[in-house]
From TrEMBL:
It comes from Maribacter spongiicola. Pathway: Cofactor biosynthesis; coenzyme A biosynthesis; CoA from (R)-pantothenate: step 4/5. Its EC number is 2.7.7.3. This is Phosphopantetheine adenylyltransferase. It catalyses: (R)-4'-phosphopantetheine + ATP + H(+) = 3'-dephospho-CoA + diphosphate. The gene is coaD. GO terms for molecular function: ATP binding; pantetheine-phosphate adenylyltransferase activity.
């Protein structure tokens, strides 16, 4: 069983996330979308809303599930018996940041990180940009899946 964890805050789920997950499921038998809880972070959407967005977006894909966790991602991977971490890359800055995390995770465990490049038409989308558009009353519908638009 090739099980991957796709960690993030998903505040909110974007079309960029959706792209990585749908392409990732062709590589793995199962993907667990893992919402990390960070007490120091102020979220626009509460945990229940974020879980609902994700569950609705992937309701027709039984090999994709969503769970929340606290602590190190590698510890969550071990708990869920996942041997891979899936991450999306939008730009060179993402690569440098994610590379450091992947090396640290590899030092802490035997878990491999697999990177997928976000599709070119979605590489500009980030949750922080979506939140800013929402806060300022802009049209965010082309940036998120239907489940977030409702």
């Amino acid at each position: 069983m090739r099980r991957a964890i796709f960690p993030g805050s998903f505040d909110p789920l974007t079309l960029g996330h959706h792209d990585i997950i749908m392409r990732g499921i062709t590589l793995f038998d199962e993907i667990i979308i893992a919402i990390g809880k960070n007490a120091d972070k102020k979220y626009m959407f509460n945990l229940e809303q974020r879980i609902s967005f994700i569950e609705e977006a992937f309701k027709d894909v039984p090999s994709i599930s969503v769970k929340s966790y606290v602590g190190l991602t590698v510890d969550f991977c071990k708990k869920e018996e996942a041997n891979f971490i899936l991450r999306g890359l939008r730009n060179p800055g993402d690569f440098e940041f994610e590379k450091a995390i992947a090396h640290t995770n590899r030092k802490l465990s035997e878990i491999e990180t697999v990177f997928l490049l976000t599709s070119s038409g979605k590489s500009y989308i980030s949750s922080s940009i979506v939140r800013d558009v929402i806060r300022n009353g802009g049209d965010y519908t082309g940036l998120v899946p239907d489940s977030v638009r409702k």
